[in-house]
Amino acid sequence: MRVLDTTLRDGEQTPGLALKPSEKLEIALLLQDLGVDSIEAGFPAVSRGEYEAVKIIAREVSSSEIVALCRCNRYDIDLALDCDVDAVHLFIATSDIHLKYKLKISREEALRRAIEAVEYAKSHGLVVEFSAEDSTRTEWSWLARFFQEVVNAGADRLDIADTVGVMWPSRMQALVRYILENVRGNYVLSVHCHNDFGMATANSIAAVEAGAGQVHVTVAGLGERAGNAPLEEVVTALHFLLGYRTNIRFEKLKHVCDRVLEITKFNIAPNKPIIGINAFSHESGIHVHGIIENPQTYEPIPPELIGAQRRIVIGKHSGKHAVEYILKTMGITPTPEIVDKVLKIVKELGDRGEKITENTIIEIIKLVITDNSKKTTIS
Ligand code: KIV
Ligand code: ZN
Fold it and tell me: In the chain, which segments carry CATH 3.20.20.70?
């Protein structure tokens, strides 16, 4: 299964996000290290800095394929050639709404431009990834004809772009099967899912099950509006749930995502799957008891496989096992008396709506222990 990461292109289209070339290079090197097959480094026609960034990335990254986004025109493809990238990601809209209101051209004109661009890029030795923008709101028979002509012109990979995130898993599977059945030739079929209805991961997985050979993803789901399919969710689900093989080095996943979030200064929700602070945190008494006995009781995958760490959190839902665990990690023997006292204070604070931080629990434990030793001395 191929993984094309577009954090540096679609991800950078996150409202308010702009990266310097040096930051883009650092992210590209991290993605290479993570093992993504293709890195969409940027859209050289956007600005001088973007062009420079793509060029530097193409020079410095050697083991992932470097891709530049291009409209279907020679100017954009020439810029990509100047950057010395391995591949171009050509795109043009195919839906009637985009053709009528945005491009103001006919279906046949869009096809003509696409064919000419593919032939031009191929004649210069580039790998061609071709996206039909707004594929999922395009009439299916027209999309298949369009893709067929683009493959005939030499495109290596075809991409179904769910530009406004309107697909759902069963429909995505039907579309992937329809394209695979109706477009002949030697190509890899890819999907590019946006998350407007929260289904980008599910749609990507569904597409793979239906026969797609590549997914477009971004770290943490960065991207326009509600973002793109999150890399960390898609690759872990593919690997750990469905058993697909990718080139991802899973042990680096958490670190790479954390660093990208630091560079982009993008905040994620605590409960974000795989990389959120709560993704491998456990508070409730029943869960912590299970986790201590056998982590598989409440963890779908061991956190260490993706370079993350389990956290046992103390709060009003905690039970004695969690407190015993924390005391042991602090080198304190968890006598029933200490455990009960700590738990009592924790629950009282919780009932008052107070958050128990790591510092709070240390303070509570210190208080209980000091109190206990005073009593021992007096008695
Ligand atoms: O969402 C989209 O349609 C895109 C294209 C450039 C593929 O990002
Ligand atoms: Zn997109």
Answer: 2-264
Check whether domain 2-264 has CATH 3.30.420.10, yes or no: no
CA distance 325 to 334: 8
> What pLDDT, on the 0 to 100 scale, is given for residue 375?
67
Distance from the alpha carbon of residue 60 to the mean position of ligand 1, in angstroms: 26
Task: Please give the helix or strand (H or E) that residue 68 lies within, else none.
Answer: strand 65-71
Locate the ligand 1 atom nearest the alpha carbon of residue 159 and give its number.
7
C-alpha 290 – ligand 1 centre gap (Å): 44
- Confirm or reject: Cβ of 12 under 6 Å from ligand 1: no
Note the pLDDT of residue 376: 52
> pLDDT averaged over the chain?
96
Write out pLDDT tens, residues 169-209.
999 999 999 999 999 999 999 999 999 999 999 999 999 99
The alpha helices in the chain, defined as continuous H runs, are 21-34, 48-60, 74-83, 96-98, 107-123, 140-152, 169-182, 200-209, 231-236, 253-264, 285-293, 320-329, 336-351, 358-378
Ligand in closest contact with the CA of 163: 1
Give the three-class secondary structure for 92.
Answer: strand
CA dist 27 and 38 (Å) reads: 13
pLDDT digits over 260-317, tens only? 999 999 999 999 999 999 999 999 999 999 999 999 999 999 999 999 999 999 999 9
Spatial CA neighbour of 226 closest among 270, 202, 192, 196: 196
Residue 116 in tokens? 């000419």
- Cα–Cα distance, 183 to 205 (Å, whole number): 21
